Amino acid sequence: MNLDARTPDGPIAEKWSRHKFTNKLVNPANRRKYHVIMVGTGLAGGSAAATLAEQGYNVTAFCYQDSPRRAHSIAAQGGINAAKNYQNDGDSVHRLFYDTVKGGDFRSREANVHRLSEVSANIIDQCVAQGVPFAREYGGLLANRSFGGAQVSRTFYARGATGQQLLLGAYSALSRQIGLGAVKMYNRHEMLDLVLVDGHAKGVVTRNLVTGEVKSWAADAVILATGGYSNVFYLSTNATGCNSIATMRAYKKGAGFANPCYTQIHPTCIPQSGDHQSKLTLMSESLRNDGRVWVPTDVADCEKPSHQIPEEARDYFLERKYPSFGNLAPRDIASRAAKEACDEGRGVGPGKRGVYLDFADAIQRLGASAIKERYGNLFDIYQRITGDSAYEKPMRIYPAPHYTMGGLWVDYNLQSTIPGLFVIGEANFSDHGANRLGASALMQGLADGYFVLPNTLPNYLAGEKPGSIDTGMEAFRQVEADVNAFTNKLLSINGNRTARSLHLELGRLMWEKCGMARNKAGLEEALQKIPEIREEFENNLKVVGTDKELNQELERAGRLSEFLNLAELMCHDALERDESCGGHFREEHQTDDGEAVRNDERFAHAAVWEYKGLGEKPVRHVEELGFKDVKLAIRSYK
Amino acid sequence: MNLKLKIWRQDETSGAGRFKDYEIRDVSPDSSFLEMLDLLNEKLVEAGESPVAFDSDCREGVCGMCSLTINGVPHGGHRGTTTCQLHMRSFNDGDTITIEPFRANAFPVLRDLVVDRGGFDEIIQAGGFITCRTGSSQDANEVPIPKPVADDAFDFAACIGCGACVAACKNASAMLFTGAKVAHLNTLPQGKAEKDRRTLAMVAKMDDAGFGNCRNYGECSAACPKEIPLDVIAKMNRDYAVASVKGIIGK
Ligand SMILES: Cc1cc2nc3c(=O)[nH]c(=O)nc-3n(C[C@H](O)[C@H](O)[C@H](O)COP(=O)(O)OP(=O)(O)OC[C@H]3O[C@@H](n4cnc5c(N)ncnc54)[C@H](O)[C@@H]3O)c2cc1C
Ligand code: SF4
Ligand code: FES
Questions:
Q1: How many independent structural domains does chain B possess?
Q2: Which of A130, A187, A384 sits opposite B85 (nearest CB)?
Q3: What structural domains does chain A harbor?
Q4: Ligand 1 geometric centre to CA of B173 (Å)
Q5: What pLDDT score does A351 carry?
Q6: Which of A184, A490, A544, A546 to mutate to test the interface with B (most CBs of B within 10 A)?
Q7: How open is the CA angle B199-B204-B207, to the nearest 5 degrees?
């Protein structure tokens, strides 16, 4: 597997501009001869499709929802980072770069992160020009807030619906191109496989989710922008349809999958209330600007209502353990601290799996109306789900799976190990290392889509003869046949278990053995049990209906089939990464006070997995990571 | 909780639909409305019957994918709440609940409770954007925007494109949806350059896509889970009148 990152030479701050200059271009008159496929039109795919079409390329785009405006990016609440330094508080491109490398626990590629920081400021300019209604100060200038892992205010936001407004911005740009005919958009289409011609990605096979029609599409390059895989846990903050079919099918076709074990457990979600639940709801990290996290010091107090617990009997554990970052400690650290408190029996609420997030001080300091202005919609969401008002008593929160740093390996050009297959947004592994900082996913998705891919894709296209591929080729027939055979298999098992019940079982196992904390014995156990669930899936699954109609059970089963494969891959990766770093916490590797212990000598690399066939152990390769511009150090937020 | 459900079943757009009765037992009052339907579907699949198709994705009230007319009201009639945010504690044990798709000529049923809202995308494609080439924008703080203007724009931009306004309207008018986008973009200084063109194009497309006329019934805003105010319609009518007059004078 060729893992040459193709990182340009030169000082870190000049790499991107030099690279843009040396990249090959496609002249404007020739661009319309090229055809690209965009799978996924969330922030990353929507912005990329719009920009490529605007440059003159022909784009065919797909999403599984009934409109691109509904991609899961829409649910992002808190904000988007950018090194604008509008607050004059010492921010800079270099500081954002530094914070991100450190926040990622020194497991990301420096050159990519620096580029991300460089283009971050342009993203805000672009979005404002599109009409994204970011929050403003009375003087009319843009407002900022702070997010975890940073000591500056660099997060731009649109009340508690930043993702919605950014996605609607990208969607409007995309819609304009659809209206102009430059993008052909196919909603309610799911990519079920990738087609390679002479080792290059040259097409996809999709299923029309309304009619069931299976169809081939040819192009000069394929881009995956299909989001993350937190739903492997069944319960997560992701939309219920989020899935890993596209990335896993590409993996099976030869694309390396990097760091699958790097998953982010978000500290502030509404705790689980029962088995009926289909998803968990996030309470934005921005709440930690004003909310204080605590549990009772004494286990005996846990049953009491919060207002009966006096100040001196409360343990504000984040403020106590991490005085310089306090409630804004990064996500992995805050999540583990909450778990630790609950493991000690000091959790609150049903099942004692919850900690308080308390706004009483902030309400007293700023008034309820100021808090309402900042977080009103989040408080409303909380009330709808729990029936409680956070203006009157503290919220109860608990960590939940939220984001996946792992994904398909890409080089500096965002190209996977399959030539012609590019991967952007949460679907790739780049930029965040072992832990993503808050408000940096939106930044990365839009950086990839608006500014990076449109500058790197032409370099590949320039070397390809446009229009040399058509769906009549044998390669397409073969993949279509495979897709149909797989669907027929799912429909013919006719057993007793629903896809949902099997997914629930897989999710529980993953949460227990490969969730917030992992250990060797647990991972080995999971690696035994996952094949058992897969066997049950293959022999006892029940899907009703046919493949020639809108069939949501069939969709669910197809998605689960890849979650099963991915779960196994995650456990292999977690087992072999015998260190703790960022979101990957191996219980064997911690300090006396429970902090993660990295092993830079053995693991300062990205682990990239190569598929070797179903049931075979995949092969682990490495991309060594060099740290020249940020010195390797113990990540401390104390 | 135990409930009786009357659910609209329809195999495909051209097929005839009908209500079918179901009973469901042991529903947790803490579960959401869609989780109650998930539970029903689990039972149906286990019994080898075809599950009820319905749309949803984020399940937290922001993607606009969920729909459903519940007891005759789009999204079930709780202020500012989408179907996916509706919880079973709002119902009583023993209730009978009627569940239908969003009904409008411009929203054909695809199956059971799933409808095609593609007309909304077409309206946006006609003019629901600000033309700005990627990478050529000025600094974001170059043009200060007074906070009240930005706040208004946000309020209008909060629309999730769910279609409840159309389903609630006797005429299946899309004025609230279209008005919200027009108001969002026309309010901002960045959107002024294309204001007339945008308004005319979006209104024309709205008629084209088969949505009905507005008769000021106001049902749309009452059903809107994002509480988009009726003002956006008045505002769009004003902008439309100005743009039309300019158009005539221009010719
Ligand atoms: C609740 C929540 C809150 C968040 N808040 C923040 C925040 O405040 N700040 C921040 O920076 N980040 C936040 N994040 C993370 C961030 O929202 C995501 O990482 C980011 O939006 C992902 O964008 P994307 O474009 O990569 O993927 P998505 O938006 O998930 O888009 C995926 C696209 O792929 C399509 N797709 C998927 N599979 C297929 C297939 N097989 N065939 C066809 N199409 C397919 C989908 O239809 C969709 O169009 C949050 C995440 C969650 C869950
Ligand atoms: S205006 Fe309201 S009801 Fe209509 S589509 Fe938008 S959010 Fe839905
Ligand atoms: S499912 Fe997203 S708004 Fe209801």
A1: 2
A2: A384
A3: 266-401 (3.90.700.10), 474-603 (1.20.58.100)
A4: 31
A5: 83
A6: A544
A7: 130
CB pairs below 8 Å between A and B: how many? 221
Convert chain B into a string of H (helix), E (strand) and C (coil).
CCEEEEEEECCCCCCCCEEEEEEECCCCCCCEHHHHHHHHHHHHHHCCCCCCCCCCCCCCCCCCCCCCEECCEECCCCCCCCHHHCEHHHCCCCCEEEEECCCCCCCCEEECCEECCHHHHHHHHHHCCCCCCCCCCCCCCCCCCCHHHHHHHHHHHCCCCCCHHHHHCCCCECHHHHHHHHHHHHHCHHHHHHHHHHHHHHHHHHHHCCCECCCCCCHHHHHCCCCCCCHHHHHHHHHHHHHHHHHHHHC
Distance between Cα A134 and ligand 1 center (Å): 20
Per-residue DSSP letter, A439: T
Residue B170, token pair as written in the block: 């006797």
pTM (two decimals): 0.97
Segments in chain A below pLDDT 50: none
pLDDT at A634: 86
Are B81 and B189 in the same domain? no
**Closest by Cα among A249, A230, A113 to A567:** A230
B238 shares a domain with B150: yes
From the CA of B82, how far away is ligand 3's center (Å)? Answer: 7
Inter-chain residue contact B57 with A552, CB threshold 8 Å = no
Measuring CA to CA, which residue among B185, B152, B151, B130 is closest to residue A143? B151
What are the tens digits of pLDDT across the range B7-38? Answer: 999 998 888 999 999 999 999 999 999 999 99
Tell me the CATH number at B19. Answer: 3.10.20.30
| Rounded CA separation B67/B90 (Å) | 18
Tokens standing for residue B62: 């922001």
Å between B90 CA and nearest CA of chain A: 10
Return the pLDDT at B15: 86
Please say which residue of B80, B111, B142 terminates a domain. B111
Q: Which residues of A touch B30 (CB under 8 A)?
A: 273-274, 276
Catalytic residue among A70, A331, A346, A577: A331
B-contacting residues in A 126-155 (Cβ below 8 Å): 126-131, 133-142
CA of B103 to the centre of ligand 2 (A): 14
Q: Is A331 labeled as catalytic in the residue annotation? A: yes
Interchain CB distance below 8 Å, B87 and A385: yes
- Please report residues of B whose CB lies closer than 8 A to that of A126: 132, 134-135, 137
Is residue B113 within 8 Å of B56, Cβ to Cβ? no
For B179, the domain range is 118-250
Residues with CB under 6 A from ligand 2: B 159-165, 176-177, 180, 224-226, 228
Q: How many CB atoms lie within 10 A of CB A328?
A: 20
Q: Are residues B78 and B133 in the same domain?
A: no
| Nearest CB partner across the interface for B51, out of A75, A127, A553 | A553
In this prediction, the residues of chain B whose per-residue pLDDT falls under 70 are 250-251
Question: What are the residue ranges of helices labelled H in A104-191?
Answer: 110-130, 162-179
Q: What is the pLDDT of residues B170-212, one digit of tens each?
A: 999 999 999 999 999 999 999 999 999 999 999 999 999 999 9
Are residues B212 and B127 part of one domain? yes
From chain A, pick out residues whose CB is under 8 angstroms from the CB of B36: 276
Q: Is B72 found in the same domain as B178?
A: no
* Whole-Å CA distances, A502 to A67, A489, A515, A564, B49: 29, 17, 18, 10, 19
Write down the pLDDT at residue A376.
87
Chain A residues within an 8 Å CB radius of B51: 544, 552-553
The verdict on ipTM greater than 0.90 is yes
Across the interface, of B62, B130, B161, the residue whose CB is closest to A131 is B130
- Residues B139, B28, single domain; the answer is no
Predicted confidence at residue A589, as pLDDT, reads 97
